[in-house]
Amino acid sequence: MIRIWARTTLEGKITRSYIYESIDNFSEATLFKHLEKICHELDIPTPLILKSHITNYVDFNNTTFLPRDFVESIDFDRFIIENATLSN
């Protein structure tokens, strides 16, 4: 099971927040599928995922998407996803 805390920020303040849960296990190959569902719930466009985003999420348990990572215009300056899975 995975849990991801997703949030958008504008000038350092959280403007949207969502906790995503899935019974699937995380893998690099499924990150886009999870991100697509998260963005749908937050009603924001899905960003482009670069290798650096995947590497940051795997290595540091979070990654940040900036306006340049979106094709459409957005009303925030950062979109952050963070691993919120509690390990025993």
Account of the 3D structure:
The chain is α+β, with helices and mostly antiparallel strands and 88 residues long. 25% of the residues lie in helices and 33% in strands. It has a 4-stranded antiparallel β-sheet with strand order 2-1-4-3.
Brief write-up:
With 88 residues, the chain is an alpha+beta fold. It is built from two helices and four strands.
Query: Can you tell me the overall shape?
Result: globular
Tell me the total number of β-strands: 4
Overall pLDDT: 93
Indicate the radius of gyration in whole angstroms: 12 Å
List keywords for this structure.
88 residues; alpha+beta; 2 helices; 4 strands; 25% helix; globular
Q: How is the topology of this model organized?
A:
Blueprint: E1 2-10, E2 13-22, H1 31-42, H2 51-60, E3 62-65, E4 78-83
